[in-house]
Amino acid sequence: MSNGYADLGNGKVYYEIEGKGETLVLIHAGFVDSGMWDGQWQALTRYWRVLRFDMRGFGKSDPSTGPVSRRHDLYRLLKELGIGNAHLLGCSIGGETAIDFTLEHPEMVLSLTVVSGIPGGFEMRGEPPSEILEMLQALEEGDLDRVNDLQVRLWVDGPFRQPEDVSQSVRQHAAEMNRTAVRNGTWAIADASPLNPPNPPAAVRLAEINIPVLIIAGSLDNPELLRAADFLADGINGAKKVIMPDSAHVPNMEKPEEFNKIVLDFLNRA
Predict the structure, then answer these.
(1) Predicted TM-score (pTM) of this structure
(2) How far, in Å, CA of 17 to CA of 40, rounded?
(3) Which of 31, 81, 140, 228 has the smallest number of Cβ neighbours within 10 A?
């Protein structure tokens, strides 16, 4: 395995690469870091040259000092590492990033896998989860432990389970990763008002994607995330959709063996 830091000009990003063959890029969710792919690493690097990295503000990468463009950071990283094209697999904000990157640089993307992702411009319906409002209040009060706990409840547990219903090791791992992002204030600084969002947004451009696409969602995630999965599958010609049972926003962490099989089957066909 090779690892190091890539200087993107506005901060250094930590990355790891292992394996041979075509490149597969793993893009993590917005409350964890590249460690969310620990359960996939050995299975995927057996067949692919896999790159995973910590986005700015997460994990071992530099903190964000202002709004960022995640798709532009991904482009700079791939150019810095000399990667001309790759398969993309992103979760949550990582999935949104992968979609935006695919639309902006279609010649660089061999296939696209979106996990628990929402395309830019997709309008959520109904009231936001109660945890969102509680998190904003906890942020104002500087109660970072409370923010971290609410993030885990929102994304790992989901709206239909209590903490005791979920693997404690998964919850603990997510909380450890999220602690860095909470301490860095990453969401408020970097992602609440992202830099140069695509215009028009991805939600109205999905028909332009003409590569193999896999959409994955957890059955116990917020229903609006499942509606987003339907929206993506309906909007992208030939896209395959898989709903993983008994999991929420990070199904790869909860059910790694099942997730790995789904992804490997798709990539082998792609």
Answers:
(1) 0.97
(2) 13
(3) 140
